[in-house]
Amino acid sequence: MIETIRKLGLFGIGAWALTEEKINAIAKELVEKGEINKEEGKKFVRELIDEQKKQKEEIEKRISEKVKETFSKAKTETKEEIERLERKIDKLEEAIEKLSK
Known about the structure:
With 101 residues, the protein is mainly alpha-helical. It has one domain. The chain has helices at 2-8, 10-13, 20-32, 38-100. The chain is rod-shaped. 6% of the residues are buried.
């Protein structure tokens, strides 16, 4: 069944992009054309919905990882900026102290 899906090019557009309604419509069309029987149509729908869920989970995982990576990087950059500003303040305090003597 997965081979039939591949032949249709559905993996090319991504199963995640299809609604369950569209998946059922595709299966119905295949049954009507005689390319698959009703049982194969049901299996097709189940497999494509399962694939859709897997792709959705993978996309969510990648997005989550990217968000964590971005926040981690921003946090590091912010910490480095704070440390740089603290050093600059220390130097300014030293300069003020020297001027007041």
